[in-house]
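Q: Given only this backbone (211 positions), what sequence would you predict?
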């Protein structure tokens, strides 16, 4: 029985693509990596992380360092961020229906807390990983902290790595199509649910057993 909904932050709830592209490109210009632009963004969404690294000429082992630099510089852009269309209304409905929810992200607790405070939206639990490939470890930490089993939560994310992390622990996962990864990037990493807009997601969450 599902007792809590756990949301990813970037891409899933918040439209932060432009921020990440700007911060990545600043690093790419200094390091000689391929820049992201309007001509290749959609193509990059269809690729796996390894394929993106190859295309952008970014060594895979440097991804954690680049991600760390981006997250530190991300803070200045927090006031400019907006929820994806329909997300505010969905969260309001979830709150009104007393559905517990938390945020679990590769961003920082500081950035996420500040964003929710600026938007006047309540969120009680935020769990973050400094390693973009370490969501399964943070999910374990979350389960232990909240005294929940894998079958008692559902994760809502927008990337193949979200699905991979959930599969390691036996957690149900709903993938949203409006985020960072295109459905082609999922390859064989299939989620339990695919949702194409926040209304579909709200319907799913409000019709899961025990919510």
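A: Predicted residues:
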């Amino acid at each position: 029985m599902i007792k809590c909904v756990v949301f990813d932050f970037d891409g899933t709830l918040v439209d932060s693509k432009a921020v990440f592209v700007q911060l990545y490109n600043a690093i790419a210009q200094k390091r000689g990596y391929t820049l992201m632009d309007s001509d290749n963004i959609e193509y990059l969404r269809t690729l796996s992380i390894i394929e993106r690294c190859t295309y952008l000429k970014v060594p895979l082992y440097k991804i954690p360092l680049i991600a760390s630099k981006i997250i530190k510089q991300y803070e200045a852009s927090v006031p400019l961020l907006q929820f994806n269309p329909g997300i505010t209304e969905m969260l309001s409905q979830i709150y009104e229906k007393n559905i517990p929810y938390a945020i679990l992200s590769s961003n920082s607790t500081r950035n996420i807390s500040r964003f929710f405070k600026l938007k006047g939206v309540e969120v009680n639990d935020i769990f973050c990983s400094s390693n973009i490939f370490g969501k399964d470890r943070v999910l374990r930490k979350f389960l232990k902290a909240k005294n929940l089993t894998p079958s008692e939560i559902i994760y809502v994310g927008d990337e193949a790595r979200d699905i991979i992390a959930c599969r390691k622990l036996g957690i149900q996962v709903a993938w949203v199509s409006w985020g960072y990864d295109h459905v082609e990037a999922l390859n064989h990493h299939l989620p339990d649910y695919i949702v194409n807009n926040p209304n579909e997601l709200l319907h799913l969450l409000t019709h899961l057993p025990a919510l």
